[in-house]
Amino acid sequence: IISILLNNYYPSVIVRLYVVKGKSMTPKDATTSDPYIIIKLGETTITDKESLRLKTCNPNFGRSYDIPTSLPGASTLAIECWDDDGFNFPDLIGITKIDLEDRFFN
Asked: Which residues contact 75 (CB under 8 A, 6 or more apart)?
């Protein structure tokens, strides 16, 4: 009963994330990459193949995402950049993680 009451107390929020660009990314193909973005927050995963930029290590993504969540709760926002290899397995270019609870409550 306590967890149900607490879940009703936690504020629902929308996390608005802007991914503007990548700079000097490590090439995963010969001299370039084909980067795209994957966003993870709790049970939510957004694989944004529309963000795919071909043959660049300095992509201009210009993308925004609205992700519903509750705080406190799942609070680690992971922003991943992957290199698309067509039919092969993609290569991880890089990842950054942001603790949303820390930013929200402090």
From this structure: 69, 99, 100, 101, 102, 104
pTM for the full model? Answer: 0.85
State mean pLDDT over 18-43.
95
Separation of first and last alpha carbons in the chain = 29
Number of H helices, E strands in the chain: 2, 6
Instruction: Give the pLDDT confidence score for residue 1 in this predicted structure.
Output: 39
Residue in this structure with the two tokens 């890089």, named with its chain if needed: 94
Q: Which residues contact 76 (CB under 8 A, 6 or more apart)?
A: 41, 97, 98, 99, 100
Q: Write the DSSP symbol of residue 87.
A: T
- CA 72 – CA 10 distance, rounded (Å): 6
Give, in degrees to the nearest 5, the angle at Cα 31 between 30 and 36.
Answer: 95
